[in-house]
Amino acid sequence: MNDLRFPLHFTWGVATSAYQIEGAALEDGRGPSIWDTFCHTPGKIIDGASGDVACEHYHRLEEDLDLIRSLGVSAYRFSVSWPRVQPDGSGEFNERGLAFYDRLVDGLLARGLEAHVTLYHWDLPQALQDAGGWGTRETVQHFVRYAQTVATRLGDRVRSIATLNEPWCSAVLGHETGEHAPGLRDRALSRQVAHHLLLAHGMALQAMRASGVRAELGIVLNLNPAYAASDAPEDLRAATLFDGHFNRFYLDPLLRGHYPADILEDLGADAPRVQPGDLEIIRQPLDFLGINYYSRTLVSASGNARPEDAQYTDMGWEVYPDGLRDLLLRLDREYDLPPVFITENGAAYADRLEGGRVRDPERVAYLRAHLAAVRSALEAGVKVKGYFAWSLMDNFEWAWGYTKRFGLVYVDYATQRRVVKESGEWYGSLVRGLEPVG
Ligand code: IFM
């Protein structure tokens, strides 16, 4: 039996984000973002690297678009760099930056590929951070203007526009643990930031719809299902709390119009300040929900557990494809779920270029197993419309710099040569309908 048959019009894509691949950090009027500042602060990035050059995608656009086409996929998910199109986040827009994304979208269309845009994949203009960043409501207003401008410019040629990528990461990694830009450590601030991000999403959706933007509009969440390590009441409670902070804190306001009561109680004085009307704004109808899934967490009251017999990726993340199926079924059961795109899924492994080839059977196995999970959720009736592998090519993996490789395409950073890995060939053959059985 072939467990990887998908509906005819299923969208097959690859994904990237601006700061991770573009480079050209100081060119054509781009302003600095919080990630430029963070990377250039000693000790923040494991290999001391930055996105200054990254994959030079900004200068290799045509070659990279040909590469996407050559893989055989039908869609490309990318993000717009806010500081490239509006250098200080609140003033003039930068025509040269906007023109780059025009060329990107037109280049995709010319190659028969769908464009899926993300407006915010973590690169806040530094000038806005200097004025308080996502901790202030002013940033929300600036985001709405930015979103409306980009969506009006590109919205007639792109299939979808997501407001935010993974607000949990911006809020928690950026403002509670300090692992990501802007590197702050303040739990109350992190939850206020989460609220402002969600509010920015809701207001931007309203503004884009009011401007007649035709693309499908939604948001992308990274969801991490929590499994209790045992049936002990304290482990069950710990898993519920983990799920609440990680998943429900974003799903509930977006899809139900309220924050989860148990998590507000757990936060106590660190709960966000919410103004009247905010939650109605956040709960906008979604044309789609983007889900990024990489792994699960096994939770116990004494700390997160690591199953010994499991396989792990180079990030140390457990390979757990059943978690994706369970997650999709649960969301479908518990929420009034809009159509779903799996907007990211993939794995880092320590790939090596040898004799002109990159053999990455673990990544093929990872993708195959997760696609089988998606297929099984589809069969159970969940409306999954497409799947994007993370990532098109190896790139700047945030605090891990260039030490982690997620690509279907290997990047030799010394020469910027791209080499399609065996997983890229496998994914292409699957997408073309030539998935070998057995
Ligand atoms: O590289 C990131 C991406 O930017 C957001 N989602 C997770 C990926 C892997 O860590």
TrEMBL record:
The active site is at 166 (proton donor), 344 (nucleophile). The keyword Amino-acid biosynthesis does not apply. The keyword Hydrolase applies. Its EC number is 3.2.1.21. Substrate binds at residues 20, 121, 165, 294, 390, 397-398. Gene3D superfamilies: Glycosidases. GO terms for cellular component: cytosol. GO terms for biological process: cellulose catabolic process. It is an enzyme of class 3 (hydrolase). One of its GO terms (molecular function) is beta-glucosidase activity. Keywords: Carbohydrate metabolism, Cellulose degradation, Glycosidase, Hydrolase, Polysaccharide degradation. Pathway: Glycan metabolism; cellulose degradation. InterPro entries: GH, GH_1_N_CS, Glyco_hydro_1, Glyco_hydro_1_AS, Glyco_hydro_1_beta-glucosidase. It catalyses: Hydrolysis of terminal, non-reducing beta-D-glucosyl residues with release of beta-D-glucose. Transmembrane segments: none annotated. Belongs to the glycosyl hydrolase 1 family. This is Beta-glucosidase.
